[in-house]
Every structure is written in structure tokens, then in C-alpha cells.
Amino acid sequence: MATGSYSEVPRLPYEDTDFEINYKTKASEQEILDGERARLRLQNTYGNLKHDNRLIAGDNLKVLRTLSDDPTVSGKVRLIYIDPPYATGFRFQSTTVGVAYDDVDRGATYLEVFRKRLVLLRELMSSDGSIYVHLDVNMIFPVKLLMDEVFGSSTFRNLITRVKCNSKNQVRRQFGDVCDYLLFYCSSTNNLWNNPIIPWGPLEGEKEYNSVESDTGRRFKKVPCHLSGVRNGKTGSDWNGRPPPPGKHWVHSPEKLNELDEQGRIYWSPTGNPRRKLYLDESTGKRRSNLWTDFRDTQNQNARVTGYPTEKNYEMMRMIVESSSSPDDLVLDAYAGSGTTLAAADDIGRRWIGIDSSAVAIATASERLRYGTPLMGSYARKSYIQRKPDQKPKDTYTAFQVWFDEDMDDNSIETN
């Protein structure tokens, strides 16, 4: 980490994003918005619907256009998570569900296919909404430029690194590949945020809060009383006869800092340098960073998974949904796959819409939402979507509708 002081530099008078990716097949945004709509037909309704949860089978480009015409959806989606194809050139299948999808688009073709979806997703987001895009190293960097172009670089929040597995020591002349990545953007700088906290591990809090008050025995840590950036209001004025350090401003107004000092919550160093005291017994844990090491793809035979290839970690999805939405908010996954996003959203009281063009994905997600998720090591049938005759719906019944684009052949999709 660099040392020394720094201060904010005023932005140059450029547009928010003054560059774009160009290629021959690039369509205008108006062409994208005006394109063909999906002709949706209701196939099944499960449960007594309290909310209009929808699982939609069809090309997500056409479906997203149709949703953009729906006043209950357009501009109302608080959170979007998508785990699109990664431009790997592979066919994804498993012994449990069979062939799920082919990941064949590459290069400029991939970028334009994805850009069209991003433009439509932007139209569906609420004014304080968030979008997470999950990719691997193949396309994460060009897609970052695309998202700067579509959403604006000022709405970028994080590039998140997820440790997805242990190193298998199967590579030569390079480092082992154990990570994938998430791009986190918002529709504005005022995005909804429920700060995720990781509980302290054994002795972890004691190490972080390494000072002890002699009279109370309370553990605390010392943090600066200032933040980066010059301010002209109260936080930029003098406190106790001293200005904030160059290029900084006080974290609170002088009145608030005096109040903290009277409460014994300011530590004065022998040289007279003030620092705030934060107490361990008032902390529930540490703030999550953009390095996620605790959401690996499951290898545990006692874990509950569908067996769908590329299925993501349920706890990760639950954390994302909790962080960027509130109860009763609308969550959208345009590449729904096995339905992990939908299951996590449903479990914590969010409304949801899932879209996928794969018959296997629709059937897998539908069964998961109705019957729960089996243990990884106890599959009692050849395919997850071939339910045992005596299998009953799970106790907490998920209510949702299944819709089909009329242009899609739904004969092979078993959702009854």
C-alpha cells in the first residue's frame, strides 16, 4: 500500500464514459430497444401466489424487451444477478441433468450478444438498483469496458474476486486458476446497500482490536478522525483549534467530535494526535471485502445441489441478494440456470423473475423451487428432472408461474 497523503483531484470536463468498444455488427441502442418481443404464454401456476414470481422459458433478449413494456417490471428491478456464458467454446453437461447449454459465442459476436442484454437490463433497473455480472478471466476485461459504456463508469462499485476451488496442480508454466470474478455496478450513485458483515473468527477480533482500556477492560482499536478529500462545510473547519490534515476533512463535525471526546471515545496520543476509539463489544464482525474466499463451488457430498453444470454457491447468492435488496423487492436473473438466485431470493422474502432458454434449466429450476434440492451424494434417480413418483412438494411451498415464449418448443420441458 502506498504511503503519504493524497487528495481528490477535480474531474476533467469529459463525459462520464468518453470511449466505447467498436465492431462491425454493433447495433444502436434504439434498434436494441425496438427489436422483436417474446410472445409469452402462461404454462403453469404453482401455489397460491402472493407475489407474481415468474420463471420464463425463452430467448432472454426477446423476453427482456417484453418485460420492458410491463409497467410492473420496467424501472422496478432492485437487483439483477446474471451468470452468462463465459465464451469458453464448451458444451456444459452433467451426469445428473444431461446437456444444459452450449457456450459457443466468441469475440465481437459474444460482446454484441451480451451488450444487447445489458442495454435492456439497464432499462429494467430501479433508480437505486444494482447489477452483478459473474464471469471468468476469458471476457471479464472487455465486459468491464462494455458496462462502463452502458451504465457509466461512475456507477462501477467493485471488481470482486471469488476463490471458486482449491488448486488442482494441473497446470504447467503458469499459476493455478482458482478464481472467477463479479462486476458490481449500479444504476446511480445512490444504490441501496445493506452492508454485509462477516462474524469474527476465534481471536480475530482480539487481534484487530488490540488496545485495552485500563479502567473498563474494554478492547478497542484506534482509527483516524479524518477522511480523504477537502470539504468546505463543518467537517472542513477547525476542531480544537486545529484544521484537518492537508487534503483531508474531519469524519464528523467539530460538535460531534467534541461529544465523542466527552464520552471518552477519542484517544489522544502523547504528541496530541486525536484518533477515534472503536470498541470490539460494539462490533458484530468485519466488513466484507471484494475478495471472497468462503463461497467455493461445493465438493461436499452432504451439500444440497441440483447437479446442474455451472451451478453457483447458494450462500453467495443469498449474501448478494441480502446486500443489494430489501424484503419484497424484485430480483431478476436473466440466465437463471438451476435457479440458485431465485431460490435465495424466495427464501428471504424477495419477489423474483428468472429467464432461461435451456429446457433443462427451466425444468431443473422448476423442480428445485417446488421440491427443494437433494443431497449431492444421494441422487436416487438418473436425472434430477426425473422426479420419483412419490416425491412431494417441500413444506415451504414456493409459489410461481411458468411462462413460455410461443416461439419456443416446450414439449420437452417437464414442469408438472
What is the string of SSEs from the N terminus onward? HEEHEEEHEHEEEHEEEEHEEEEHEHEHE
Percent in helix: 10-25%
For the sheet with most strands, the description reads: 10 strands, mixed
Taken as a percent bin, the fraction of beta residues is 15-25%
- Specify Rg, calculated over alpha carbons: 25 Å
Q: Give the spatial strand order of the biggest sheet.
A: 1-20-2-19-18-3-6-8-7-17
- Poorly predicted residue ranges: 378-384, 411-416
Strand count: 20
- Individual helix count: 9
What is the average per-residue confidence, as pLDDT, rounded to a whole number? 85
**Overall 3D geometry?**
globular
Secondary-structure-derived class:
alpha/beta
Topology, pairings included?
Elements: H1 29-33, E1 40-46, E2 54-57, H2 60-68, E3 77-82, E4 91-94, E5 98-102, H3 107-124, E6 125-135, H4 140-151, E7 156-163, E8 179-186, E9 197-198, H5 204-208, E10 211-212, E11 219-224, E12 226-228, E13 248-250, H6 254-262, E14 266-268, E15 274-279, E16 286-287, E17 291-292, H7 314-324, E18 330-333, H8 340-347, E19 351-356, H9 359-371, E20 400-405
Parallel strand pairs: 2-19, 2-20, 3-6, 3-18, 7-17, 18-19
Antiparallel strand pairs: 1-20, 4-5, 6-8, 7-8, 9-16, 10-11, 11-15, 12-13, 14-15
Helix pairs in contact: 2-3, 3-4, 7-8
